Amino acid sequence: MSKLVKNAVGRLVPTEINGESVVPFMGVNKYQPEGRRHAPKITSNANFPSDGNKQVASLKDALIKAGLKDGMTISTHHHFRNGDLLANMIFDIAKELNVKNLRWFPSASFPCHEHLIQYLEDGTISHIEGSMNGALGRFTSQGKMSKTAVLRSHGGRYQAVQDGDVKIDIAIIGAACADPFGNANGLYGQSASGLLGFALADSEYADKVIVVTDNMKPFPCIPWQIQGNYVDYTVEIEKVGDPKKIISGTTKVTKSPDRLLLAEMTAKFCEATGIIKEGFSFQTGAGGTSLSVSNYFAEIMREKGIKARFARGGSNKYLVEMLNEGLIEYILDGQTFDLDGVKSMAENPNHVWTSPFTSYNFHAKGNFAQLVDVVILGATEVDVNFNGNVVTHSDGYMLHGIGGWQNCLFSKTVILPIPLFRDRIPVILDEVTTICGPGELIDVIVTERGIAINPLRTDLIEAAKNSGLPLRTIQELKEEADKICGKPQKPKLSDEIIAAIKWVDGTVIDTVKKVM
Amino acid sequence: MSKLVKNAVGRLVPTEINGESVVPFMGVNKYQPEGRRHAPKITSNANFPSDGNKQVASLKDALIKAGLKDGMTISTHHHFRNGDLLANMIFDIAKELNVKNLRWFPSASFPCHEHLIQYLEDGTISHIEGSMNGALGRFTSQGKMSKTAVLRSHGGRYQAVQDGDVKIDIAIIGAACADPFGNANGLYGQSASGLLGFALADSEYADKVIVVTDNMKPFPCIPWQIQGNYVDYTVEIEKVGDPKKIISGTTKVTKSPDRLLLAEMTAKFCEATGIIKEGFSFQTGAGGTSLSVSNYFAEIMREKGIKARFARGGSNKYLVEMLNEGLIEYILDGQTFDLDGVKSMAENPNHVWTSPFTSYNFHAKGNFAQLVDVVILGATEVDVNFNGNVVTHSDGYMLHGIGGWQNCLFSKTVILPIPLFRDRIPVILDEVTTICGPGELIDVIVTERGIAINPLRTDLIEAAKNSGLPLRTIQELKEEADKICGKPQKPKLSDEIIAAIKWVDGTVIDTVKKVM
Prior knowledge:
The structure is a homodimer of 516-residue chains. Chain A is of the alpha/beta class and 516 residues long. Chain A has a domain at 257-492: 3-Layer(aba) Sandwich (Glutaconate Coenzyme A-transferase). A nine-stranded mixed beta sheet of chain A has the order 18-17-16-15-19-22-26-27-28. Chain A has a seven-stranded parallel beta sheet with strand order 5-14-13-10-6-7-8. The first copy, chain A, has a three-stranded mixed beta sheet with strand order 9-29-30, with no helix packed on it. In chain A, a hairpin with a 2-residue loop joins β23 and β24. In chain A, α8 (257-272) crosses α9. Chain A is globular. The two termini of chain A are 19 Å apart. The model of chain A has no long low-confidence stretch (mean pLDDT 95). At the A-B interface, loops of A face loops of B.
C-alpha cells in the first residue's frame, strides 16, 4: 500500500490502490478532471453476422468467444438484486476453465453471491469493485480478499467506466427480454426487473458485451434499453434470475410508530419550509420510512391542491399511485422496486426510465440529481459535522453499498430521517466510521427527538423558525443520545485498508479498515 | 489535390482531401478500421450551473460562450428540412462576428440554405461536408466552393463523427421541444418534425453542444431524444423553422400511371419470389413510387393474411395506417415525413424512433439496416454492372444527397424501381456518372419494360423464373432505352474534383467533377 495523505475531509487515504494511482478527495466541486473519455476500439459490421443474429449456444461459448482469460475485468449488473443467478454461473464457468485473477465489477452484489467466496479464496476472483451487501462485505471486512475493494456510487461507477478508470473486458448483461441482435430490456418476461440502466455504461464502453436472457424474442426487442449495436454475443438460458427474489413484493410502508414519526416530521418539515410547492420535485427511496414520507407528501399535496412536476424513483406501488392520481406529472425512474413499478414503466409513458448517465454521472454537463428539490435518504451514521456514512456499521463491518446516495446529495435539499439510536447504539457520533458524503451537502437530520438543520442552510433555519417543529442543534441531539446509550465504543479496527470509498468524481473520500 | 489512385470499383480517387489523408474504397466489407472512437474531453458538473439551468439569452450569446472562432467545424441537422431557419441564423451571426473559414457539417442542406452562398463566397464558410440538395449543389458543381465537399450517407456521417474523422467544435441542435437543461425532442410544438436522430452523434461527440428551441418547457422534456447531459447551452428563440416546410403535407401516393406500374411490378416481384411472407420486414422510403409500393404490399398482405414484423420509416400516413390496421407490428423510424407520422410516433409505443447509430452506423457491431428483408430505393442512374448513383444527374450536376441510401444497400434484398428514361435521358448506362453504391449490393432493377435481376442473386433468378414477370438482362434494358433515346451524351466535366463520395466505412468510393 502506498503512502497515506490527508484529504479534504481530514481522512488519511492512499495515493495508490491495487497498483494504480488515485487522487485524494479535494472537496466538493474542487477536482478538475483532465483528459478524455475512454474510447472503445472501432468495430466494423463486416466482422459481425450479416443477418444480425449474434446468438451462441451457451454462456460458456459466449465467454470463450469473448476471450475470457486471466486478469480480466468482468462486469455484471444488479437489476435482478438478490434473485440474480448469472454472476454465480459466470464464475463457475471461469473456475471450470481454470481462469484466474479476475476483477469482478458488479454494479452491486447481494447475499445470493455468497457462492463466490470460494472463488475469492481460490484465486479465480482477485477482488471485487462494487457494493457488497451482506456476506461478501463481511468476508472483505475480515481482510480475506487478496486485493483492496473499491466502492463507488451508481454515478461514480458510470464515471469510472466513462473516464476509463475501470476498463471492462467483458460485460455480461442479464435481461428479462432480448432479441438475437442484442437489443434488450428489463420489462417483459419471468425475470422482469423494470430497466437495465445499471448496465448502460458497460454496454457502451466494455470491450466485449454479452446479453443473456431467458426470454429471447424475434427482432426487434422494444424498447431497447440496451442497444444491440453495442453487443457482441447473445445467449438464451433457462433462467437468469429467481423472480421471487428479483421483486421482493415486501416493499411496504413501515408500521413502526418510531419510523412513522420520522416520516411525518420529515413531511411536516418540507411543508413548513415551503419545499412542498406547486411544481416541486422529490426522491424518497425505497425503505419503509421513505415510503411513508411519500404517503405524507401525498396527503399534504392533496390537501393543498399541489402537484409535483416529477418524482425520482426507485419506484413502487405508492409512487405509481401518486402518478396515476395526478399528484406527480412524471416518475423519472432508476429502478423499480415492485411489480407495480415494472408494470407502470411498461405501460405509462410518463413513467420514464433513466440511467446512471442521465441521473447521476458527475463527469457530464450536469445531471438530474441536482435538479431534485428534496431528497430523503438514510444513513448508518452521521456525525456532528453532518458527514454521513452508509457503508459501515458502528462495529466497523462494511455491509452496504453506496447506491445512488452520494449522487443524490447534490439535490437542492438533502434530508436524513434517522433514529437517534439503533439497538442502543447512537447514530449521531463525533465522527462517522466511514465518510461517504461530506457534511456540507447534508442539510437536515430528522430524529424522533428533534430536527437539526445544517448551519450552512441559514435559509432553512429561517424558514423553519416559527414552524413549531422541534429544532435542535446536532450537538444537542448527539448529547441526548449519549445520555441514553452511554458514550459509544469505537470499533476495533486494524490499520489494514480493505476498501476504498470513491467520491462521485473518482477521488478517494475515505477507506474502510479490517475489523480485528 | 493529392495523387489519384484507382479504387475497388475502378474509380480514380484522391488519397488526400482538404489536406487530410483518406482511404480509397477497398470493396464491400474489406476495409478494417483501426484505432479507437473519438473520445470527447471529460467534463465536470462542477463547471455547469448547479440548478441545471443552462439557458442563455440568445443564439449569439450561446455561440460566443461556445467559443466560436475561425476554422471551426459547425454542425446542424436537417430534421426541419426545407423549413430550417437555424443554419442561416448561425452563419449570419458568424458573419456579424467576422468569423471566417468555418466548415459547415450539416446532416443535409436544402434549397432554404441558398442564403449561405454569400458566406461561401466571402470566406465565412470554407466548405460544406454534407448532402446538398438544390442551389448549393449547383454552386458546388460549378467549382465555386473553395475547398472540396465531402458527401456521406446518414450512417457514414455517424461513423465519421464517432471515429473522429470529423471533429465537431460546436453542434447546434434545433428542437421542437426542449427544457433549460438541454433535454430535447422533435415531437411537440409548432416545429414538430418527429425525431432528432440526425443530431445524435453531434450531441454525443461535439466539443460544445447548443440546443435551440421555440418551445421551452420546464424540466423534464420527455422523451429526451437528445439528452441534456451532453448539452452546454440552451436557447429559446421565436421560431426555429417554418412549419409549412418542415412537414410538406404533400407526400402523396403517385398518380402517374408509369410510376404506379413500377410500384405494382415491384410488389408483384416481392410476392412472386416469396419475400412477402409472415414476419417479413421492409423499407420503402418516401417518394411517390415508394409510397405506392407500400400500398401494393398492404393489398397483398391483406389478401394473404400476412403480417410484417416491422417496417422501417421514413414514416408517413400510409405506413401509419398499416401499423394501425395491424399489418405491421412495429415501425422503426428514422424520420417522419408527414404529420400522421409525427402523431403516431408521439402516441404509439410501437412506432419507435431510431437513430443513424442503431440503424445505419457501419462501425458498430451490426445495425438494423442489414436486418431488413427488402428495401425499395431510387437512383438517378444505374449501370450495366448494377452500380448506382444518387447524387448527380447525367448532366454532371450534383443536386442530391446520399441520405440513408448506401446504408440500406445492406438489406437482404435491394430493389430499385426506376423508369428506363427520364426526359428522354436513359437511366441505365454503361457507366454511372458517380458510383454511390457498388453493384454487388443492388439486386433488382424494376423498369416499365422489364425486371433485371443481378446475376449474383441466383436464388432470386430461380424464384422468379416461372412468375410470368417480364425478366430481362440489364444489358437488354439498356439497349432498349438507347434504341428509343439514342446513345446518351457524356456530361462535360473538367478534371477538377469538387466533391468526394464516402462509402459507409469512411473510404472514398468516387468523386464528383466540376461541370464545364
